[in-house]
């Protein structure tokens, strides 16, 4: 029973770490996309680019 319990704790910790990493990656990807959108819209609205 002790071995099973220890394995379960390790499994839960591992899953928590993976979930945390996934969330960080999601936030990172959102930031990249937002940055791209802002940069593109800034470029489009800059009138100097059309003259």
Question: What does this protein structure show overall?
Answer:
The protein has 51 residues and is an all-alpha fold. The protein has one domain (2-50). It has 1 helix and no strands. The protein is rod-shaped.
List the helices and strands and how they pair.
Elements: H1 2-45
Radius of gyration: 22 Å
Distance between the termini: 75 Å
| Distinct helical segment count | 1
Which structural class matches the secondary elements? Answer: mainly alpha
Mean pLDDT score: 80
Q: Helical amount among residues, as a percent range?
A: over 70%
Total strands: the figure is 0
Low-confidence regions: none
Q: Could you state the order of secondary-structure elements as H and E? A: H
- Largest sheet, described in full? none
> What is the overall silhouette?
rod-shaped
- Beta fraction: under 5%
Can you tell me the number of structural domains?
1
Could you provide a short overview of the structure?
With 51 residues, the protein is mainly alpha-helical.
Key attributes of the depicted protein:
51 residues, mainly alpha, 86% helix, 0% strand, rod-shaped
